[in-house]
Amino acid sequence: MKVLVLHSHPVEESYGAALHRQTIESLKSAGHEVDDCNLYAEGFDPVLSRQDRVIYHDYPDNTETVKSYVERLQRTEGLVIVTPVWNFGFPAILKGYFDRVWLPGVSFELVDGKVRSKLQHIRKLGAVLTYGADPFRAFIAGNPPKKIVKRVLRAQIKPFSPVVFLAHYDMNRSTDETRGLFLDKVKREMARF
Predict the structure, then answer these.
(1) Are 39 and 93 spatial neighbours (Cβ–Cβ below 8 Å)?
(2) C-beta separation of 59 from 110 below 8 A
(3) Distance separating alpha carbons of residues 162 and 156, to the nearest angstrom
(4) Which of 98, 106, 126, 102 is nearest to 39 (CA)?
(5) Rounded to 5 degrees, what angle do the CA atoms 84, 88, 94 make?
(6) For 123, what's the count of Cα atoms within 13 Å in the CB-facing half-sphere?
(7) Would the CA dihedral through 152, 118, 123, 18 be positive or negative?
(8) N or C of the chain: less Cβ packing under 10 Å?
(9) What is the percent of the chain where pLDDT is above 90?
(10) Is pLDDT of 113 > 90?
(11) 124-131 vs 163-168, strand pairing mode
């Protein structure tokens, strides 16, 4: 299976970068073809400009400035997001990716006023996230990243697709042991993706 890995950890020596490397390694060892989309390393511009918004609904003109990212999304059969959670949301670069790439005509179309997914070729979805907050604080805040992955994104791909959601909570008080255990979990789960 061709798997697109969206990575938005800005520091190459970080724990998040180690999770990214482990995700890639496990997916490859399971026989997947991996398209590693490291948004920071690729210099992705997350800003939806005024002109981008003006032509937002004008497919295919709306894809011109992000054409290579659209093509990568259209070729993938699996999607894995590897990112930190900042202020109970995705980093701006990842949010900007969804705003600029998951466009009308690319991720959905309107048919008789109803939204129809155009990403049903994506059969599996995964997320490897790190949170500064503990699970209770994330729950109280509504855990938007979890809902985006397990509800919003899942609804935009093939219906009833399996979702692998892995989160290391409470990074502010993590230890070598908790980080090691989570890295092992990522290794196992991504090898079964």
Answers:
(1) yes
(2) no
(3) 13
(4) 98
(5) 50
(6) 6
(7) negative
(8) N
(9) 93
(10) no
(11) parallel
Residue-range domains of the chain with CATH: 2-191 (3.40.50.360)
182: left (phi over 0), alpha (psi -120 to 50) or beta: alpha
Residue 53 pLDDT > 90, yes or no?
A: yes
Give me the amino acid identity at 82.
Answer: V
* Tokens 């990074």 sit on residue: 171
Radius of gyration of the chain from its Cα atoms, rounded to whole angstroms: 17
pLDDT in tens, 66-99: 999 999 999 999 999 999 999 999 999 999 999 9
Which tokens in the block code for residue 88?
Answer: 């109970």
Peptide bond into 144 cis (omega under 30): no
Task: Give tens-digit pLDDT for 150-169.
Answer: 999 999 998 889 999 999 99
What is this structure's pTM?
0.95
First and final CA of the chain: distance in angstroms? 10
In the sheet where 33-38 sits, what is the strand order?
33-38, 2-7, 78-85, 124-131, 163-168
Tell me what pLDDT residue 10 has.
84
Look up residue 121 and give its two tokens: 């070729």
Write the Ramachandran bin of 116: left for phi over 0, alpha for psi from -120 to 50, otherwise beta. beta
